[in-house]
Structures are given as structure tokens and as C-alpha cells.
Amino acid sequence: MTATKKRHGLIGAVLFDLGDTLIHERNDSERRLDAMTLHLMPHARRTLEILARDYHLGLVTDTESSGELAVRNALRKLGIESYFEAIVTSTDQGIRKPDPRMFLTALRILHVPPKEAAMVGNDSRCDIGGAKRLGMLTILFQPAGSRHPQRRIAADYCVSSHSQIPELLAAFNMHHQSKRSVTP
User: Fold this and answer.
1) Is the bond preceding residue 98 a cis peptide, omega within 30 degrees?
2) What is the band of 2 on the pLDDT scale with cuts at 50, 70, 90?
3) How far apart are CA 128 and CA 60, in angstroms?
4) What is the mean pLDDT of the segment spanning 96-107?
5) CATH of 13-142, one of 3.40.50.880, 3.40.462.10, 3.40.50.1000, 3.40.50.150
6) Number of alpha carbons in the 13 Å side-chain half-sphere of residue 169
7) Which three-class secondary structure state does DSSP give residue 88?
8) Whole-number mean pLDDT of the chain?
9) pTM to 2 decimals?
């Protein structure tokens, strides 16, 4: 399902974290995510819809008992599963973020190198730190009233709403596209 997307610049794929990024955090240590009632973060569905037009989308998430199938089923119930070409869980991989193999597995499925990908997540160490070590563009998601105090691993960008992400990526790509078209 990795059909060619329109490329408007450097970034060709966007990876997302799940808990407290796309959905309100839930612990799946006793029940799989597909057996729980989940709630999307504001603007998440519309943002995914917009991004899926131009970017390959992937999900990279640390789970306790939910593998890819359970996560896909949970996302299907929320009406967003079809946006994701790659879903990588720590349950399936046997490792957790910030291990680079979590991100690399998703990027391999999407056929996009790390330097052409962005990571959106709420955890400075696991989401941002892991992606940053691979050279990915990093976007820290911190909505107002976020309950996660952040250890200071600087993200490239910080957003408080999903609705900011498409414009941010478009501006980033436009800036880098114009740099590429300048001949010395």
C-alpha cells in the first residue's frame, strides 16, 4: 500500500506516537487497546486526513500487550486506521522507543529514509530523542495542560494542536524546496 505520494519537498513520511499524541493515554497492560474505549485528541482525525494526501503515515508506539493487529483494530474503531501504512509496536518488536530500530522498521515499510521523515510525539526522550538520533525532523506535541513534564531534548518544532502540523510541514518543505532550486 505504499503508493507514490505527491512530494512537495524533503519530507515524504510522518510517523506518529499513539498515547497522548493521537489518543488520550491508556495503559494496555491488562487489556488490549482494541478492548478499550479510546478517545482521539482534538483535530487528530482531520490532520491525518490532510497529511495522508501528501505523506506516507506510520505509527510507532510503545505498548504493553497490544500488537499491530490490536492497534489496527483500535484505530479502525476510531475511524483512522486506513491512514496508516505502517504500524510498529514494542509488543511485536520486543524493544521500546527510543531504540532506533522502532523508527527504522516503520520507515523501511514506508520506503522512506530517516532524513526524509518527521516524527510527532509527546515524549521528549522516547519520541523526540530516538527520532533525532536518526536525523529525522522532530515535532513535540504538547497540548495546553499537558501532564508530561518534558526532559529537555530539544525538538525541531513544538506544537500545541494537531491542526498546526500540516502547515508546519508545508512551510518546512517549501523552505527546503527553495534551497534546492537555488543554483550556485
Assistant:
1) yes
2) very low
3) 12
4) 98
5) 3.40.50.1000
6) 32
7) strand
8) 90
9) 0.91
Whether residue 1 is predicted with pLDDT greater than 50 in this model: the reply is no
Quote the pLDDT of residue 147. 62
d(CA 57, CA 143): 21
Q: Tell me which residue of 135, 162, 136, 165 sits closest to 54, measured CA to CA.
A: 165
Burial 135-164 (b: 16+ CB within 10 A, else e): ebbbbbbbbeeeeeebeebebbbbbeebeb
Pair 1, 85: CB distance under 8 Å: yes
> Around 136, how many Cα atoms within 13 Å sit in the side-chain half-sphere?
30
Amino acid at 161: S
Provide the percentage of residues in the chain whose pLDDT is more than 70. 87
Residue 126 identity: C
Q: What pLDDT score was predicted for residue 144?
A: 79
